[in-house]
Amino acid sequence: MRLLGPLSVALPQNTTAWCILGTAASTPNGEPSESSRVRSALFRKSPQGLIPENQGMLLLTWTMKMNSGVAFRAVKGCWVVNLSQQCLHGSTGLFVPPSPPVDPEKVRELQRFVTLSKRLLVMTGAGVSTESGIPDYRSEKVGLYARTDRRPIQHRDFVRSAPVRQRYWARNFVGWPQFSSRQPNPAHRALSSWETLGKLHWLVTQNVDALHTKAGSRRLTELHGCMHRVLCLECGEQTPRGVLQERFEALNPTWRAEAHGVAPDGDVFLTEEQVQSFRVPPCARCGGPLKPDVVFFGDTVNPDKVDFVHRRVKEADSLLVVGSSLQVYSGYRFILTAREEKLPIAILNIGPTRSDHLACLKLDSPCGELLPLIDPR
Q: What range(s) does the Deacetylase sirtuin-type domain occupy (predicted)?
């Protein structure tokens, strides 16, 4: 579900504004299906956010207030965004760290790098999706580690503890509508166009948000999996994450929770009291526990997938890193392979990375601002 129309936020107190809401079934690429229905609703601004005047038509299910000042109110699965004064330009820039102005000479250098590449391999990280409104872990001032002392779930804890799985899925259930509605930004679309034009040999992403797929990329390896799939830990059955959301709703028809912050990969912050009554369904096939089809911290990437990416790196003639600090070894190892193969390496990332000393070119700019400036032909 996603917001399909405009929402006015610069309103005096107690005035009204029209906004268009969609109750939409999504296609695999995240676009509304032909059966989507559009409704209009009248809202009144109040200290608590935007309140529907015609509440008989709309069912308020829960409100999520983020640490950054954005409040999301879900109305039958549709997102209404209430923006505070500190983010009137929209939520997509909230998680992009500060950066210096784009250096025209650096842009020219990157253009030369791409022009000379005939078999370019691109590896992306969380920094390519922050401009789509998805927070990352390590960015200065705006990443999860900078905003809070919370840390991501560990694989070992998830597979061993039912209460840990319950807490994870309760939080993910709350965060899923917003996370799954995120759309590709100009960086994703630029890389997709590079593939269409024959410039991109292969794309490797460390992200689990499916935004490259939504943008149309096909020569793609999702190194850490994808949140849009769910895996049974017992029988290996895979199901779409949207199907699990429907099962959650059926099992928890009266469950309500207010989130106290937003984290990467569809996670939000809930209290232990909020989580205790949340019910988690088992695998519909064998009754086993369910896990998102992603590599949690503390887990390892499938060796066959690692070997596949190593082969793609060795086939390439250059490597471009986009939006990754390369702090995690699962991605950093491919930089080491590129170095062994004597490939030129360029890095586009706001802030230092683990491989700056190995790069022939380093740029500190937002990915969505810079990549569309590059002509891949």
A: 100-377
pLDDT in tens, 115-158: 999 999 999 999 999 999 888 765 566 655 556 666 678 999 99
Q: What angle in degrees, to the nearest 10, is found between the helix axes of 162-181 and 241-251?
A: 120
CA distance 15 to 35: 33
User: 129 labelled as ligand-binding?
Assistant: yes
Cβ neighbourhood burial of 288 (10 Å; 0-12, 13-18, 19+): middle
286 assigned ligand-binding residue: yes
What is the CATH number assigned to the segment(s) 91-134+185-224+295-377?
3.40.50.1220
Q: Retrieve residue 207's tokens.
A: 């992200």
Q: Where along the chain do its domains lie?
A: 16-89, 91-134+185-224+295-377, 152-181+235-292
* Active site amino acids: 224
Cα separation values, 160 from 153, 163, 226, 282, Å: 12, 9, 22, 15
The answer on whether 329 is annotated among ligand-binding residues is: no
Q: Report pTM.
A: 0.75
